[in-house]
Amino acid sequence: MEDSSLYIRSGSVYQCKVQPLVIFNILDHFTRRGVDAEGETSSADTRVIGTLLGYINDGVLEIKNSFPVPHTEGEEQLGVDMLFHKDMLKLHHQIAPKEVILGWYSTGSELNETSALIHNFYSKEMGPNGSPVHLTVDTNLTNFQLSIKAYTNTTVSLFEGKEAGFQFLPLPLELESFIEDRVAVDALNKGKLNAGNGMLSELDNLEISVNKVHELLESVIGYVNTVLEGKIAADSSVGRFLSDALSALPKLDPSALEKMFTNSLQDLLLVVYLANLTRTQLALAEKLQKVA
């Protein structure tokens, strides 16, 4: 009696991390999708695809970069510009030679037959042992959310090890952000709210940062006082975090800190004075040339 069992063999990838820059690149690609082959503006349902790049560390995919790949797809046809993909990959390796292909992305949330064909193309690009990841960004905002999901291919085999195809298996996804990303997003938000006010000076940015730190300190002090008064239960994890934060602060004498600040302020004032002096000399030289 023949064994008619169905076997599923998973890949070697267990988790996926993606940086915000990649998501911004994908959204930018979607907003610039342009016109289709018939010269008409692409609809919101038209998806775009591209290549994901980064590193693989102990079964964890770290997606660092991406670039778009032109493609066309219809009910009975699919075309991917493989030459463009290879050219872009060569250019990217000139900047980041250690980054490798991790998979591909697409906008929308649908997984269909064309998705399987594109996934198969990236599987060949990664070699026989490659296990590409498929990242989807739901630009249709289903349930009013920008859903981001990751999938990998899982081989489905019949009896005697014969492969029957593969299916998409969801992967745990983590949006990996750093302090620089938060600063950039805050700057973008400020620019959106104050679009007509121009760029802020360094002194204005410093004042905003100091006020933000002051607000955070007031919030921490309020939390600590509430715990000491017994109004809420103490959280050991929060206590350790605050202790680590305080330990990381440099131990400076107040007089030494004030001296450092005064010296820095004097240097800034000297730069401003020299800049004003140069501006005055240029204006004077221009007037003398006109008189002559």
Automatic annotation (TrEMBL):
PROSITE patterns: MPN
A GO biological-process term: formation of cytoplasmic translation initiation complex
Pfam families on file: JAB (PF01398), MitMem_reg (PF13012)
Entry-linked Gene3D superfamilies: Cytidine Deaminase, domain 2
GO cellular component: eukaryotic 43S preinitiation complex; eukaryotic 48S preinitiation complex; eukaryotic translation initiation factor 3 complex, eIF3m
Localization (cell): Cytoplasm
Stretches assigned to coiled coil: none
Described purpose of this protein according to its UniProt entry: Component of the eukaryotic translation initiation factor 3 (eIF-3) complex, which is involved in protein synthesis of a specialized repertoire of mRNAs and, together with other initiation factors, stimulates binding of mRNA and methionyl-tRNAi to the 40S ribosome. The eIF-3 complex specifically targets and initiates translation of a subset of mRNAs involved in cell proliferation.
PANTHER family found in the cross-reference section: EUKARYOTIC TRANSLATION INITIATION FACTOR 3 SUBUNIT F (PTHR10540:SF6), EUKARYOTIC TRANSLATION INITIATION FACTOR 3 SUBUNIT F-RELATED (PTHR10540)
Quaternary structure and interacting proteins, as annotated: Component of the eukaryotic translation initiation factor 3 (eIF-3) complex.
Protein name per UniProt: Eukaryotic translation initiation factor 3 subunit F
Source organism of the structure: Planoprotostelium fungivorum
